[in-house]
Amino acid sequence: MIRFEQVSKRYPGGGAALDGVSFALEQAEMAFVTGHSGAGKSTLLKLVGLLERPSAGVVTVTARNLRQVRRRGIAQHRRAVGMVFQDHRLLLDRSVQANVELPLVVAGVPASERAKRARAALEKVGLGGMEQRLPARLSTGEQQRVGIARAIVARPAVLLADEPTGNLDPQLAVEIMRLFAEFQAIGSTVLVATHDLFLIKRIRKRVLVLDHGRLVDDLAAGEVAA
Amino acid sequence: MIRFEQVSKRYPGGGAALDGVSFALEQAEMAFVTGHSGAGKSTLLKLVGLLERPSAGVVTVTARNLRQVRRRGIAQHRRAVGMVFQDHRLLLDRSVQANVELPLVVAGVPASERAKRARAALEKVGLGGMEQRLPARLSTGEQQRVGIARAIVARPAVLLADEPTGNLDPQLAVEIMRLFAEFQAIGSTVLVATHDLFLIKRIRKRVLVLDHGRLVDDLAAGEVAA
Amino acid sequence: MNAPETRASAARGGALARWWRAHRWALAQSLLRLREHPLGTLLTVAVMGLALALPLSFYLVLLNLDRFGQALGEGQAVSVFLQAGDAQAQAQALARTLRGEQTVAAVTLKSPRQGLAALAALQGFGPALAALPDNPLPWVLVVEPRVAASPSQIAALVRQLRADPRVALVQDQGPFRARLDALRGFGARVMQVLAALLALAALLVVGASVRNDIQSRSQEIEVLQLVGASAAFVRRPYLYAGLWLGLLSGVVAVALTMLLEAVLAGPAARVDAAWGGRLGLVALDVTPLLALLLAAAMLGWLGARIASARHLAADEPA
Amino acid sequence: MNAPETRASAARGGALARWWRAHRWALAQSLLRLREHPLGTLLTVAVMGLALALPLSFYLVLLNLDRFGQALGEGQAVSVFLQAGDAQAQAQALARTLRGEQTVAAVTLKSPRQGLAALAALQGFGPALAALPDNPLPWVLVVEPRVAASPSQIAALVRQLRADPRVALVQDQGPFRARLDALRGFGARVMQVLAALLALAALLVVGASVRNDIQSRSQEIEVLQLVGASAAFVRRPYLYAGLWLGLLSGVVAVALTMLLEAVLAGPAARVDAAWGGRLGLVALDVTPLLALLLAAAMLGWLGARIASARHLAADEPA
Ligand SMILES: Nc1ncnc2c1ncn2[C@@H]1O[C@H](COP(=O)(O)OP(=O)(O)OP(=O)(O)O)[C@@H](O)[C@H]1O
Ligand SMILES: Nc1ncnc2c1ncn2[C@@H]1O[C@H](COP(=O)(O)OP(=O)(O)OP(=O)(O)O)[C@@H](O)[C@H]1O
Ligand SMILES: [Mg+2]
Ligand SMILES: [Mg+2]
To answer: Cβ separation of A38 and B197 shorter than 8 Å?
Structure first.
């Protein structure tokens, strides 16, 4: 489902954010990506979501070589991918519900169904009743959960989450991970970037470890010492 | 140095973010504030930094009742307080160095000294050599560290940090906490909001625990079970 | 929990329903946008409306000057001075002949007595001329060409009269008419150039407004792109906003022009009255007004199109 | 590591040095800001410049119309027709007397022969008048009042002439002069109202521009406030930006007016030549131009002040 073959990424005016990374994730598999700040976790997720293109190597998602995806294809690809952004990326002047509905608007879902599904997604992240608030009137952790609701609302085939629990307390973080695991269970491929070792130990999934852009470890589920 | 007396905060259109909180922090003391997402940690720090005013109760900082601080006094107060924001609050169209220099510009420090001190602060958070980058071209953890450098660059008497390590790996998080402890050692009062139990256990300081806006625990340094 | 789905397939209904939903959303967004910045919208519409009102007003003025010019050309009749001493019978005979000409609208006979009276009315010469022992003035025929007569037809008539032995002198305003025609042509060309320039200005103004909007919404645009909005989807609200701005400016331009018309109605009627109501001054009819509205809307759309092409960051990952 | 310090005490140098550093920073920021949006800056400056150029041009035109009007009043001399049959000696005696009057600039004598020649030049009467047996015209004195003479002084002169037994008829343009004076006063008032309205428009334009800038920088403003910037500090770059916009608009207005002056120089010179160069048409001198620049800069600053007062979120925690 997601395959990296000798993928490198070098930003203009920077060093190598990723350096010869290869791995493959099956459909309905879930994995963590971890590593120090600046190790390349976000970059890896951005390549899968087609927010960036690799400088070298091949990224394949859902059997499609992303190098061949252009223009309209990019928007289409992103509609099939749900992404939680490390910096949330909410529209601050729209209500929480409008934010969560956004992927459904783009996909052309009718208004009534949009509202229903948005409300269900917000319920799942523990934000039931906050539909009409503006994101600026939420705590940061609440904002992060709005971003999570937006990523899952369209039930994407691929779910990417970049540090989705950086502003959540440990208990809530575990709940969110369980939610992601549910998506895995029904067939989504899930990739979560995190530096939270506690979480990685609790949720026993495969772990990819980055160090200065290189994939230095690929631990199967359960291999992580508790 | 920082005293809360029966402080409550109710946002318009929301429940009680803080509810009858009382505690006192001596000068050159350091404490953590912890609690679930939405517990009121950020609200507590915002009251100290005069970003919000309490609905009830008295907040005293550096022997000044903040209720009596108005207009010019607010800006003056903020210049004496260094704050790390949970959402970083960087100027995305200015270089990293310009961002870090901002408190010095506001305080009227000459340009040459500004540059020297900004560079030193960036060095301390591990961002030496990134002075001329735009924040948009940094990883989220790197952005967070720019925010930390900006908070410490003017050597404030009060240092407030809201989830300063939410995007940092555990090792870096500990280093940043040690940095804050250094400030404590030379006389700053330091208050850090975090949900990171690992960190709280490693850095043995006083811990204030919030739950739905109420102060439910106040553990002295070392009282936290390892 | 349902199985995951790609979002494209998540949409209910056919392609048409999806298309309509997307447009309805864009429409609502564009209107919200204009309402969010009422002052900016007002300013844009005012400036653009003014830019569009100018050529329209110019067109209106030119239209009337044209009529006025025709009337002037008409009023500048050909004066035919007969030989001194010719009798009334001879003058009347020539007048009859001329009235039969196709190019002639009217012929007025002026007797020597009438000539002297007119001369006496000239400032200060009254008492002097009253002392004249005898009337030295000739018969005069004032020949008014038809409005439809071309300059060359009138020139032929003048030539024919000059050849007549009964005629001492012919005064013709032909060169004046020719100059008026040239002026009219020049005015029309100036108007075309001005209209083009002002349309360009209007385009610039609406483009700048839409660009401002795009730049102040860069974050929103990025988020839309991140959740899979196509370029057309992102662009659409701005195009609609441009359309509205253009249309509103058109309305302002029409209103301004009609105001000008109302203000000028008084003086124009007076001028018309001085010409004995023969000018029949024209008001703008509905066709050019509708054309302007349409043109304004299209200009707005085009300005938005150009601005979005230039300023909407291409959604191409690097 | 040094001991912590409050930031206020961190500043080196005196209050003056701090003040100067803050202003230098604001200056640099304001210039960066204008450069960041060259098209928007251009548009603002163009529209505001136009709004300021209009009253200035109007002032220039009025200034010259004034001269022109004076010349017209002057040209419309008082014509004095003597009794028919009066001899040359009598006419010259009256002319001498009149030349001694304080209100009289010049007196021209026209003999009956000159009068007849002028009459003959009138269209079509040449051949007829040539046949006159005797010259029936009187002597005429053309009396030009001084430019400085008031309408009432001239009226008194006319009364005096009418009472003279040698005089048959006096033709006076007094009512014309009075009307011209009224028109001049009206024009000046219209210009004042127009100038006030256009200054208001300029204020609006620069205010809208600064407001746009403030709104697009709301995040930056918030960050500045968070790190302890005072309201004055936050506001300052916008005030400087308004000042620059105003000053640039003033330059544009002056340039436009000078362009108008250059374009009109040809026709104006021709009119002047027709008056024998006595008009001495005026160009704008430096004082009103400098005044305009100053006024424009102040308008810009004021517009920015109002916009920032209205749109800079007060830094008052709730
Ligand atoms: N501006 C606001 N308007 C209304 N409600 C607010 C506002 N800011 C915060 N709240 C509410 O107040 C409560 C406490 O918010 P606060 O930001 O202090 O929580 P927190 O402990 O920092 O949470 P987190 O760990 O998620 O950052 C939350 O329920 C939040 O929804
Ligand atoms: N747009 C960019 N331009 C230049 N360099 C960049 C850009 N984005 C990231 N980088 C650099 O690439 C490296 C990897 O960045 P990335 O965001 O992938 O790290 P990360 O593992 O997500 O870090 P964090 O845990 O701090 O979020 C970093 O050194 C960063 O400075
Ligand atoms: Mg990252
Ligand atoms: Mg918080």
So the answer is: no
Residue of C39, C138, C204 lying closest to D128 (CB–CB): C138
Q: Find out whether the beta carbon of A11 lies less than 6 Å from any atom of ligand 2.
A: yes
* Record: contact D230-B75, CB cut-off 8 A: yes
Instruction: Tell me which H or E stretch contains C269.
Output: helix C231-274
CB neighbour list of residue C55: distance below 8 Å, 6 or more residues apart: C191, C194, C195, C198, C199
Interface of B with D in 8-47 (CB under 8 A): 12, 46
List the single best residue of D215, D217, D218, D220 to mutate versus C (max C Cβ within 10 A): D215
* Ligand 1: residue whose CA is nearest its atom 10: A138
Helix extents (H) in chain B:
41-48, 72-79, 96-107, 111-124, 140-152, 170-185, 197-202
Query: Do D84 and C169 count as a contact with CB atoms less than 8 A apart?
Result: no
Ligand 1 centroid–CA A103 distance in Å is 26
Q: Cα separation of D202 and D216, whole Å?
A: 21
Q: What is the pLDDT of residues C148-162, one digit of tens each?
A: 677 678 788 888 888
D317 contact B CB<8A: yes
| Mean pLDDT of all residues in B212-220 | 95
Ligand closest to the CA atom of residue A37? 2
Asked if the Cβ–Cβ distance from D169 to C124 is below 8 Å, we say: yes
Please give all residues whose CB falls under 5 A of ion ligand 4, grouped by chain where several chains appear: A 139-140; B 42, 86
Q: What is the pLDDT of residues B164-180, one digit of tens each?
A: 999 999 999 999 999 99
Please tell me the distance from the alpha carbon of residue A197 to that of residue A90, in angstroms, as a whole number.
27
C-alpha D72/C-alpha D278 separation (Å) is 11
Q: What is the mean pLDDT of residues C28-53?
A: 86
The C-alpha atoms of residue C30 and residue C51 are separated, in whole angstroms, by 23
pTM of the model: 0.80
pLDDT band at A68 (very low <50, low <70, confident <90, very high): very high
Cβ-defined contact of D7 to B188 (cutoff 8 Å): no
* Whether the predicted pLDDT of D119 surpasses 80: no
Which residue blocks in C145-230 are alpha helix, DSSP H?
Answer: 151-163, 174-216, 218-226
pLDDT of residue D44: 85
Q: How far is the CA of B41 from the centre of ligand 1 (A)?
A: 8
Domain boundaries, chain C: 16-71+180-311, 77-172
Q: At residue B206, what are phi and psi to the nearest 5 degrees?
A: -60, 145
pLDDT at B78: 95
A149-159 as b/e: b if 16+ CB within 10 A: bbbbbbbbbbb
Q: B106 vs A149, B160, C300, CA distance in Å?
A: 40, 19, 43
- Please, what's the largest Cα pairwise distance for chain A? 48
In this prediction, residue A44 carries a pLDDT of 98
Collect all residues of chain D within an 8 Å Cβ-Cβ radius of residue C128. Answer: 84, 115, 136-138
CA atoms within 13 A on the CB side of B218: 8
- Is A109 within 8 Å of C10 when comparing Cβ atoms? yes
Alpha-carbon span B207 to B31, nearest angstrom = 6
* Token pair listed for A72: 């309209």
Residue B32: strand pairing partners:
B192, B207
**C245 pLDDT more than 90:** yes
User: Looking at the DSSP assignment, which residues form a beta bridge with residue A207?
Assistant: A32, A219
A40 Cβ closer than 6 Å to some ligand 2 atom: yes
Question: Ligand 4 mean position to B7 CA, how many Å?
Answer: 18
Closest by CA position to C147, among listed C51, C66, C55: C66
Cβ-nearest to A168 among B14, B37, B198: B37
Provide the edge-to-edge strand list for the sheet that holds C140-145: C104-110, C140-145, C78-82, C167-171
Considering the domain C77-172 in this protein, what is its CATH number? 3.30.70.3040
pLDDT 10s digits, C64-84: 766 666 655 544 567 777 876
